Amino acid sequence: MAYKVIVADSSPSAQKAAHLALPEPEFEIHMFGDGWKVIQALPDINPDAVLLSLQLPSMDGYDVGLYLRTQEAYNQCALVLVRGAFEALDLRKISPVEYDGLIQKPFDSASLSRMIREALDKKKEIPSFPEDPLLEEIALPEHPPEDIPAVTPQWTDELEKKIHEVVKKEIRKSTDELENWTREIVSSEFKKMLVEELKAIEKK
Questions:
Q1: pLDDT score at 108
Q2: What are 33-47's pLDDT values in tens digits?
Q3: What are the pLDDT digits (tens) for 59-118?
Q4: DSSP state of 132
């Protein structure tokens, strides 16, 4: 049976990369460019994974991710967040969202495929426990809200330090991926130039 994956991103290039990274028949992709539409589609799709851009109209990725994580029905759903190349993370909004991966644009399909597969594998290994009574489900409103109430833990210096460490780790990982991606492109273009120069020399 195919993995059902929601891709929530309004960028055509990100959507294309997702299609390349998650091919049929192993994956069944559902594309959305609007956060509120993702919320409405969750019961019908019941996804195995959600690739969620933090920048979405109607409801941003922080609120959609928080809603997903407070619903017992999606406890085993893998959640991978996508941030823009120059997008600063809102640490207070992201802290209550238990995500399985964070990838930064521009990303290549290989990196995305690896991250989604790792997130899915991790969810398989985690047994399903009863919902934490301290984290109550957020009711789905009838209309797109301006803000979904956040279940925010007590903010301490220790918590902020841990969050900063996680963010720095993800930034380093994203920077390495971007560097490798850039190196591949430069190498490819350089090879093309050499081939053209050799052809020109042979003609002479």
A1: 87
A2: 999 999 999 999 999
A3: 999 999 999 999 999 989 999 999 988 888 999 999 999 999 999 988 888 989 999 999
A4: P
Query: CB of 187 within 8 A of CB of 179?
Result: no
Nearest to 14 by CA among 100, 104, 86, 101: 104
The fold of the 3-203 domain, in CATH, is Rossmann fold (3.40.50)
DSSP 133-199: TTSPPPPPPSS--S-PPP-PPPP-HHHHHHHHHHHHHHHHHHHHHHHHHHHHHHHHHHHHHHHHHHH
SS3 34: coil
Measured between alpha carbons, how far is 33 from 7 in angstroms, rounded to an integer?
8
In angstroms, the CA 106 to CA 182 distance is: 10
C-alpha to C-alpha distance for 168 and 30, rounded to whole angstroms? 31
C-alpha to C-alpha distance for 124 and 104, rounded to whole angstroms: 25
Domain boundaries, the chain: 3-203
pTM confidence score: 0.62
